[in-house]
Amino acid sequence: MLAIELVIQGIVQGAIYALIALGLVLVYGLLRILHVAHAALYTLGAYIGVIIVNQGGHIIFATAVAMVAVGFVGIGVYRFAYKPLLDKPPLIALIASIGLFIAAEEIYRIIFGAYGMSFAQPPLQQQIELFKGFHLSTARISVVILSILFIGVLGWLAASTRTGIAWRATVSDAGMAASFGVNIEKVRYINFFIGSALAALAGVMVALLNNLVEPTMGAVPAYKALAIIVLGGLGSVRGTLVASIALGIIESFGTIYLGHVMDRDAIAFTFLIIVLMIRPQGLLTRR
Amino acid sequence: MSYEIAVLTSMSIAILFALSLNLITGFCGQVSLGHAAFYGIGAYVAAMLTKADLALPIALIPAAVMAGLVGVLVGIASLRVRHDFLAITTMGVGFLFVGIVRKQDALGGEIGISGIPSVAFGRPGLLLLALVCMVLFILLSIYIRRSWLGFAFESISDDEDTARTFGIDVSKFKLLAFVVGTAGAGIAGGLYAHHIRFIGPDSFGFVESITVLAMVIVGGIGSIAGVAVAAAVLATLPLWLQFVDDYKLLIYGSLIFITMRFAPTGIAGIVHTLWQKRQAK
């Protein structure tokens, strides 16, 4: 019974990781940049969501606004921060991104206060009985459903629309795609928009689950999402999804059975290091 | 006087710590996002030993050895993974260190170790020790830079595969860089523990790793003088500007970002460019 509960908790957590990591892997696939500041957009999404709901907005409206607004901020981050660095070694962009992320966290602290924000009346908290003796809140269920929905839509977009094909062409060979008339800049904008919007969605969802938004809430997901995309093999979307769910489940078991030796983050990174030592190319990718 | 001594001590420890990372990231080109873990290992080992009545100058040796040994392990890991993978792996090592120390009652758990004894001759004695270690490490860095070893490091940093083609034993030199760099961080950590005289898991977290990386980058990756200047300035910045303390992270973050965005070669690069312009006139 405990095992099933842990697996379900792990899947909920894994779904959130997947939403965050997906934006990260999209950026990596296109630009070869480890976009740490992605987690700052996730925090921003959470703040926007909570503020709109507390002003009397509906949760669905709040989520939509957060996603669109953060999507545009994501485009701004690309324009202002990454575009000028594209011809420099990737390390430069990684470190710039970490700097940007740290600065953003501090800006949130200064603007929104250090103690965080909560929903005045947290929505979606009804408990639903899944099977006998096991309850799950609506928020948790929506997290899983929304993740599957958005990832599914994204998969369909990438597979069968013109934009999706342009995107895939740019990922596999930007120069070649450009010579076939793909507008690479536009693809990058769309890429940052979608990735950032998904991060905002994850932010609002986590705000619902914990009923708390803090300036530093992005710190752990920022680094864990990096671990996930590395586990997934850097650039492989399917690998990232598998790694997200795997990490969610391993963490929920690990905290029970290894909790006295190391904390949750250490468990995640132990898993990462072990996997990388055995398979340096990540979980699913072939050499 | 005691205030100046404390400031100078922090400065020398920061310079030592930053130069130790400079050896790995600057000279040998291996990114480390978890360097604070080795700082922490040195701090914990030295603190435990001096609490057991060992003198600090002697306790620094096992501190360096322990940090260096773990450094070898990470170095071996760096042979398996490269570039972005390596950056994330070293970041993982940092989180692993903090996550394990946090749960060890023998190391004081969340609360950490307090009441670390003071050094013989008190504060001036510690300053002297820190200065000696710093100068020795600067000399070591200069020596490595000028020797064949420095050339090998630089070739690996530039292009690993080409270096291998030319018969440079890439694995050996990478491990060497990690051992020397992490041992240096261990010594810096031991000094730090006796400077602050209280350590806990949060003293060695990701922020510290980034802080030291910021010193290396703002100074100019690989430049000994640039990194030393940047370390001295960044370590004492909160002291010069008291009001900055609350916004310390904002300033660090912005500095890192602005340096990368507008001057990726850091102080050393700016000075170099200015110097060349003057020469050209």
Shape of chain B: globular
User: How are the strands of the biggest sheet of chain A laid out side by side?
Assistant: 1-2
Morphology of chain A: globular
Let me know the average pLDDT of chain B: 85
Work out the helix count of chain B: 12
Number of β-strand runs of chain B: 2
Helix content of chain A: over 70%
Mean pLDDT figure of chain A:
83
Distance between the termini of chain B: 45 Å
CATH class of chain B: Mainly Alpha
CATH architecture descriptor of chain B? Orthogonal Bundle
List low-confidence stretches of chain A. none
**Fraction of residues in H or I helices of chain B:** over 70%
Q: Please count the beta strands of chain A (DSSP E, at least 2 residues each).
A: 2
The fourth-level CATH homologous superfamily of chain B is ABC transporter involved in vitamin B12 uptake, BtuC
Topology of helices and strands:
The complex is a heterodimer of chains A (287) and B (281).
Chain A (H helix, E strand, L loop, with lengths): L1 H30 L6 H17 L4 H24 L7 H23 L14 E5 L2 E4 H23 L1 H11 L1 H6 L4 H27 L8 H13 L5 H21 L6 H15 L9
Chain B lengths: L1 H26 L8 H16 L4 H25 L2 H19 L11 E2 L7 H25 L1 H11 L1 H6 L4 H27 L1 E2 L6 H14 L4 H17 L7 H15 L3 H15 L1
Antiparallel strand pairs in B: 1-2
